[in-house]
Amino acid sequence: MTLAPAPTTPASGSGQRRRARLSPAWALVVCLGVMIAAAALSLALGARIVPLDAVWGAFLHPDGSTDQVAVLSRVPTTVTGLLVGGALGMGGALMQGMARNPLADPGLLGVNAGAALFVVLGMSLLGWQAPLAIVWCALAGAAIAVVLGYGAAAASPGGATPVTLALAGAAVTAIAGSVITGILIVDQSTLNSYRFWQLGSLTAASFDTLAQLAGFLAIGAVLAIACSGRLNALALGDDVARGLGVRVGAARVTAVLAVVLLCGTATALAGPIGFVGLAVPHAVRFLVGSDYRWIVPLSAAGGAAFLLVCDVIGRILARPGVLEVGIVTGLVGAPVFIVLLRRRKAIGL
Known about the structure:
The protein is mainly α. It has helices spanning 24-44, 52-60, 66-73, 75-99, 111-125, 131-155, 162-186, 188-199, 207-234, 238-243, 248-270, 276-288, 292-317, 325-342, 344-347.
């Protein structure tokens, strides 16, 4: 696949460049700083609160104390939060840029619905309950749903435009939702198992699972960075992008493939988690303007920080238990998104 050179001029769909409130370098420092702080809080806070110096000591000077055991037990959850949040943030930024839709998120092409459908089919028809089996079901379902949605949009008379992509994704989501409902109505045991997965949680993935799926996330991240510059041209419209030398079809296929790998793997690891892919790119755009060469990578750091903070809030609210992170992202993300919505400059692409 040969990709056209990416234009270097950032642009927006309205034809007006969004003013950055921070330079990209400072925004990168801020996002990375917040992400590191969120990771530290994720290791320190939970049913047992551990001082920060004990957090560092668990890695630098392990002595087997109760505090250090608690810290080490939270490492898989923290790593999962970093990977899933980063993937959803990048995926949301790609979707909004590719579809020129400020309300686009990883579910636009039916990613979540396809993953959920295959999880239900695996549980109901094959009796699969193991986390790793569920992961592969979700990843396969997300990939097939996106292929079907993008294929239907591309086969329409106007091709894969933002409108046809949204309509095809809605159709895939509706069909998958109907099949899921039909299965769950008649299968109580599958309903009980599926209900927990659907809430979204960072605690199910193990290091073995992360190691098996990290490659998909790495490839998706590379593709996302590679096509981020072309999103600036796509934001001007397909005709203008072609005039700038961008191969629109190839750029969209690359972006869709990145979304499948990032969001499909994230959904497979943690279940369908909302608002990360929707709200985080808008917050990053508010800071750095409309240049997708910065929005995409910074959304990864922002998404990771946001998801870990939500997970920590869930642990604090439900101590000594855990309120699932998929619930907390909705409770925290909705008000944040409404605030951004009221500041219209932050919402425009």
